[in-house]
Design a protein that fits this description.
The complex is a heterotrimer of chains A (228), B (271) and C (489). Chain A has 228 residues and is of the alpha/beta class. Helix content of chain A is 22%, strand content 23%. Chain A has one domain: NagB/RpiA/CoA transferase-like (Rossmann fold). In chain A, strand 5 and strand 6 form a beta hairpin. Chain A is globular, with a radius of gyration of 21 Å. Chain B is an alpha/beta fold and 271 residues long. Chain B has a four-stranded parallel beta sheet with strand order 2-1-3-4, sandwiched between helices. A four-stranded parallel beta sheet of chain B has the order 6-5-7-8, with helices on both faces. By secondary structure, chain C is α/β, with parallel strands linked by helices. The radius of gyration of chain C is 26 Å and the shape is globular. Classes of the chains: A alpha/beta (228), B alpha/beta (271), C alpha/beta (489). Chains in contact: A-C, B-C.
């Protein structure tokens, strides 16, 4: 550890606050749920979350298609050929199974996997295909998580990103990500080193306020919402 | 002061409600006509208007300049002069905001605010706020003679209305005055640049903001601007004069007096 | 002038970080005359200010005020107990494998980063946007140490290669037009001249991708530090932040200590407000929550994650209960977009990394009032900034507090006398009347034969530069009321 010692650094802060020693702060009591917005729902709220997520994601410039689990392989390969993509990077996920690889193989699509070399990743792969851990309905965000089956760079380097998310993994609001079972819930184990919320294609308006997409990250994001 | 009431409405519920008139120093010196019109309007609405003669200033200029000791003295002085239970009404939003939002903080700690000052803070309201909340009147209950006052005006919301949560509400009030078309200024949320001593100390920035306001006003082609803060009026009138766009600026109370046929002395300068 | 013809100094003082005491006025004069700049800044700020209001109203309706109050309370609570939360964050971050370093001064922060870079033999650094590193001037230090450092945020990249300086917290090149970018790319990157934003962006993208591939060090800032998990949160739109924190094998984040918040529930509240307040977006395109370096089972990510916590005067602000709330700031830029003074003077007039209302408050607090006495005065106290602030900082109140400090330390004698005389005038009706007679007399004199003042002397000349001044009425309201027999007490 470089720089000032922890004791000295913290003592400066304590002195500034007029405290002699570390103390527990009073409980901060406030209902954060005020940021939740009512979702018109029926039953367990799933259809409401699906509708809201789809709307919000489209509003920020991502495309959303709904697809049943059994149709995923066909859907993906149709999409890839319609987009005239010839090289993809596939994450290692049950949704992206051998069925899909067979389809793509038949069309002569080149499939890179997680052991792709950097040159191919930067220069050849046109589309990264990944699976989101969750989606946030109120903001239209995808939750991408670092893991042993998906590269961080898979959803970042290629100019296009196709991302699948199961409808059952949609949560209502950001608050739910740290709720019971949420990806940011820290009880019982460490959280992943990188949790990224993707809320739109890469964009900038730095040059005279003109909106340009695909600055560094992918310029197109195609979401496939998988229903059972 | 007897009101010559040629209007159609009168207000029995308010009859006899005594209000204390708080006339800011700028109104007293530069725009007494708007003070007079305010008093006339309040009387027309059934209030008994009383003017505490020893009043001078709310302390805003000193507070804004960082002289909180003098500001505190002036607030305390005002609290004594306006002591009692009667509502205090002022035509100026910035002075109402000074009292309501900044008077108490001049006294260290909540428990050190004298009761007199707390009472002052609770009772002070800006004119339109008082009409809406204090008297509970909607604009369509203050009916005037069609054509007696300009039926199209531009509206300048002064910044201090924000502190009173009246920025949008005041505009809405005006919008609902029957027979009145209100032209909103482009970028009405942008300060006109007055800000007290700011206008002189940072003259070029202030002047540029005043010009923005004036060109937005000219764009509306409205024959008159309604502006309820004398600082803002002096600033905007000053720029209108320099750029050769002599559009009259009046306080809302003056518009109502004209609409209601209540006459007041419109002359300012005798030459 | 620098190679691209941008003025780098006014009155012999550098535009940013003037050496001597800084007066916003001469700089503002320069920028007020630049019509292109005025148009660009007016359009950008007005657009974003409206977008903020629309986005918040659309998302939260009538609850906006309450949510802002909650966000302000969360930040205030955290800084009121910063000792506890900071220590908790350090413990958690270290448990997750983050190497935590602490810098008391700006120089120390730079030294730590350079040392880490040297220790690891870094040759090329890719950097994403960080206000605190602009404060500390990190980039020149890295370059002096022989480490090529490339800003990757498009606006900052352009500013870097054009030897310019950012003029807005969130939109750093709000003051530059496309032709200056075209010329810079042609000159520095050898690119074909084009003024199309899409083509210019593509040129930058291709150039920077080479850097990501080769970089051995990534430096970033941080928007939030989450205490109960030891996480760092970075909010960006372009994707360069993700590259800088994921591609190179070492990631160093430089973060001010005021960025602490207690937990993820609090983060949710602040995230809902941050982008909406700054640009009108629900969230920025990418919200990264980083907790430690790549874990053994994970496929990629940095092998080392360092966080340099920076004080650099923040404990000074913390120590003053009157100004402590300035540390709530989440650097959203909303106050800049709402501020009429910022809109006219523009960012570079503030002579500091932080401009606009928050800049006018923290620059004197961090760098000293003596160096920046005009910043707190340069405000009409219109309150637009307070209304815009997602964490409910009473910026006009803080400016008045600074004016109080300034008056005590270095008020001009002329102003002191004026305030005393004015105070006396207001203390009694008798002195008020005398003062008003004197005022009327004085103004009539300088008006001459006209019915208004066209040219006032001395301190009032600022008014009459662009405006006339009407004369006081012959009879004050007090006199009128008396004459008409109005009720008094």
């Amino acid at each position: 550890m470089k720089g000032a010692s922890r004791e000295i650094f913290l003592e400066r802060v304590r002195n500034a606050l007029g405290r002699k020693e570390r103390s527990e702060p009073p409980q901060f009591s406030s209902d954060h749920n005020i940021i939740r917005r009512p979702i018109s729902t029926s039953g367990d709220g799933l259809s409401g979350r699906i509708a809201l997520f789809s709307d919000r994601a489209r509003e920020v410039g991502m495309s959303v298609e709904h697809c049943e689990r059994a149709q995923v392989a066909q859907f993906l390969s149709d999409w890839i050929s319609a987009e005239e993509i010839s090289t993809v990077l596939l994450s290692d996920d049950p949704l992206l199974d051998s069925d899909l690889r067979k389809h793509l193989g038949k069309q002569g699509i080149e499939i890179c996997t997680n052991d792709v070399d950097l040159d191919s990743l930067y220069d050849q792969v046109e589309c990264g295909i990944t699976v989101a851990t969750a989606g946030v309905a109120s903001t239209g965000s995808l939750v991408l998580v670092s893991s042993d089956h998906e590269l961080r760079l898979a959803s970042l380097v290629p100019p296009r990103h196709l991302v699948l998310v199961s409808a059952t993994q949609l949560v209502e609001d950001l608050l739910d990500l740290s709720g019971p079972g949420g990806v940011l819930e820290s009880q019982g184990g460490t959280i992943p080193s990188s949790v990224t919320l993707v809320t739109g294609p890469s964009k900038t308006a730095d040059i005279e306020g003109v909106l340009v997409t695909g600055v560094h990250g992918p310029g197109t994001v195609q979401i496939v919402l998988v229903t059972d | 002061m007897r009101a010559e009431n040629l209007g159609f409405g009168f207000f029995e519920e308010a009859a006899g409600l005594r209000v204390l008139l708080f006339i800011p120093c700028l109104v007293d010196q530069f725009a007494p006509r708007s003070g007079e019109a305010t008093a006339l309007l309040l009387e027309h609405l059934g209030c008994e208007v009383v003017y505490p003669v020893d009043q001078t200033c709310c302390g805003q200029a000193h507070r804004n300049s960082g002289d909180s000791e003098t500001a505190r003295r002036l607030v305390l002085r005002m609290a004594k002069i306006f002591a009692g239970e009667d509502p205090i009404v002022t035509p100026s939003g910035s002075c109402a905001a000074m009292i309501r939002r900044h008077a108490e903080e001049l006294f260290q700690g909540e428990d050190q605010v004298p009761d007199l000052v707390k009472s002052l803070v609770q009772r002070t309201q800006e004119l339109i706020e008082f009409i809406e909340n204090g008297l509970g009147l909607a604009p369509d209950e203050i009916v005037g003679t069609p054509g007696a006052a300009p039926d199209r005006v531009a509206w300048h919301p002064s910044c201090h209305l924000r502190e009173l949560d009246r920025f949008e509400a005041s505009g809405r009030f005006l919008d609902s005055v029957p027979g009145l078309k209100v032209a909103r200024l482009r970028q009405e949320e942008q300060c006109c640049g007055f800000g007290g001593t700011f206008a002189s100390k940072f003259g070029s920035i202030s002047g540029a903001l005043a010009e923005d306001r004036c060109s937005a006003l000219v764009e509306t082609e409205a024959p008159v601007l309604i502006c309820n803060d004398t600082g803002c009026s002096m600033n905007i009138e000053g720029r209108l004069s320099r750029r050769g766009s002599p559009i009259p600026v009046m306080h809302i109370s003056e518009w109502f007096c004209q609409a209601l046929g209540l006459s007041y002395d419109e002359q300012e300068v005798d030459r | 002038m620098n190679p691209s013809g941008i003025p780098t100094s006014v009155d012999g003082e550098p535009i940013l970080f003037p050496r001597g005491s800084h007066d916003i006025r001469p700089r503002a004069e320069v920028f007020l005359k630049d019509e292109t700049l005025q148009g660009a800044v007016r359009e950008a700020t007005t657009l974003k200010d409206r977008a903020r209001r629309d986005a918040l109203r659309q998302a939260f309706g009538a609850d906006v005020a309450q949510i802002r109050t909650l966000a302000g309370a969360i930040k205030q609570h955290t800084i009121d107990h910063l000792d506890h939360y900071l220590e908790q964050w350090i413990d958690q971050a270290e448990a997750a494998g983050t190497k935590v370093h602490m810098a008391i001064t700006a120089q120390e922060a730079n030294r730590i980063v350079v040392e880490i870079a040297r220790d690891e033999g870094a040759r090329l650094c890719v950097k994403s946007k960080s206000m605190v590193t602009e404060e500390t001037h990190l980039v020149p230090e890295l370059e002096a140490a022989g480490i090529e450092t490339v800003e990757t945020d498009l606006g900052e990249f352009i500013i870097q290669i054009d030897h310019d300086a950012p003029s807005h917290i969130v939109m750093p090149m709000i003051h530059k037009d496309r032709s200056s970018v075209a010329r810079a790319f042609e000159r520095v990157l050898g690119a074909r001249y084009t003024e199309e934003p899409e083509e210019l962006t593509l040129i930058a993208r291709n150039h920077l991708r080479q850097k990501y591939r080769q970089a051995d060090l990534g430096v970033s800032g941080g928007n939030f530090l989450v205490a109960d998990s030891g996480s760092l949160v970075i909010c960006t739109n372009e994707g360069n932040g993700r590259f800088c924190t994921s591609a190179p094998k070492i990631h160093i984040a430089v973060v001010g200590i005021e960025k602490l918040i207690p937990g993820f529930a609090d983060l949710s509240v602040l995230l809902h407000l941050l982008a909406r307040s700054g640009t009108g977006q629900p969230l920025t395109c990418y919200t990264q929550i980083l907790t430690g370096p790549k874990q053994p089972h994970e496929l990629d990510g940095p092998e080392q994650m360092h966080v340099v916590l920076v004080d650099a005067g923040r404990t000074k602000i913390l120590a003053d209960p009157e100004f402590r709330s300035a540390l709530r700031c989440i650097r959203c830029g909303a106050c800049l977009n709402a501020c009429p003074v910022y809109r006219k003077a523009t960012g570079h007039a503030y002579g500091s990394v932080y401009s606009g209302p928050i800049g006018a408050v923290i620059t004197p607090l961090l760098a000293g009032i003596d160096k920046n006495p005009t910043l707190p005065e340069a405000s009409s106290l219109c309150g637009a900034c307070h209304e815009a602030c997602p964490v409910d900082i009473d910026l006009p109140g803080l400016l008045v507090g600074l004016r109080r400090k300034i008056r005590k330390r270095r008020g001009s004698w002329m102003e002191r006398i004026a305030l005393v005389l004015l105070g006396l005038a207001f203390s009694r009706v008798v002195s008020y009347r005398i003062a008003s007679k004197l005022q009327r007399f004085f103004l009539r004199c300088i008006a001459g034969a006209s019915d208004r003042v066209h040219s006032a002397p001395g301190p009032f000349s600022g008014w009459t530069r662009d405006r006339d001044l009407s004369l006081p009425a012959r009879h004050s309201f007090r006199d009128r009321w008396a004459r008409k027999g109005g009720r008094i007490r």
